[in-house]
Amino acid sequence: MALQHDLRNRFDETIVLSVWGTKGPTIVHIAETSQPIIMTMRVGAVLPMLQTATGLAFAAFLPRQLTEPLLSAALGAEETSNLFARDFASLDRLTMQVRKQGYAFNEGHLMPGVSAAAFPLFDRMKTLVAVLAVMGGRERFNPPGGAKMIAYLKKATSTFGR
């Protein structure tokens, strides 16, 4: 995907493209950074709904009837301490915030020291078709340039389906 490679080249961060599959957010393409990052991700991997920015973006921008079985399973799991939310009320507040800001953010939930921002990609009919996530070390997301990077990514992904 041209947008994915352009963004990777611009920021030199890993850019992951995921679609909604039968088991949830599924990675379909990865544009790797040249920087060292300790993570194992591969095409075909299914990402957790409530531990990744990508999963949270799907939860926020897809109709609830599509995501509810996976969200219920995550919220009903024995171990919920590392989830973004522990019940549907807190999840609803969080997904409303994600929709309002236009992207989901994760700092170290799934992988300590790794941050991610996930942006929805809509088609011309305003239907979510994929999520594009930028992933990198926390130190690269939090400096003053991090806000500029997120603003650029938000603008670039908002024009995807037009």
Share in β-strands? 15-25%
Task: Indicate the low-confidence ranges by residue numbers.
Answer: none
Along the chain, the helix and strand elements come as HEEHHHEEEHH
Into which percent range does the helicity of residues fall?
25-40%
Mean pLDDT figure: 85
Question: Major beta sheet, specifics?
Answer: 5 strands, antiparallel
Contiguous helical run count: 6
Class from secondary-structure proportions: alpha+beta
Number of strands: 5
Shape: globular
End-to-end Cα distance: 16 Å
Strand order of the largest sheet: 2-1-5-4-3
| Radius of gyration, taken over Cα atoms and rounded to an integer in Å | 15 Å
Would you kindly provide a written description of the structure presented here, covering whatever features stand out?
The chain is an alpha+beta fold and 162 residues long. The chain has helices at residues 2-11, 53-61, 64-75, 88-101, 138-141, 144-158, and strands spanning 14-21, 24-31, 104-107, 114-122, 128-137. Strands 2-1-5-4-3 form a five-stranded antiparallel sheet, sandwiched between helices. A hairpin with a 2-residue loop joins strand 1 and strand 2 (24-31). Helix 2 (53-61) crosses helix 4. The radius of gyration is 15 Å and the shape is globular. The two termini are 16 Å apart. The relative contact order is 0.18.
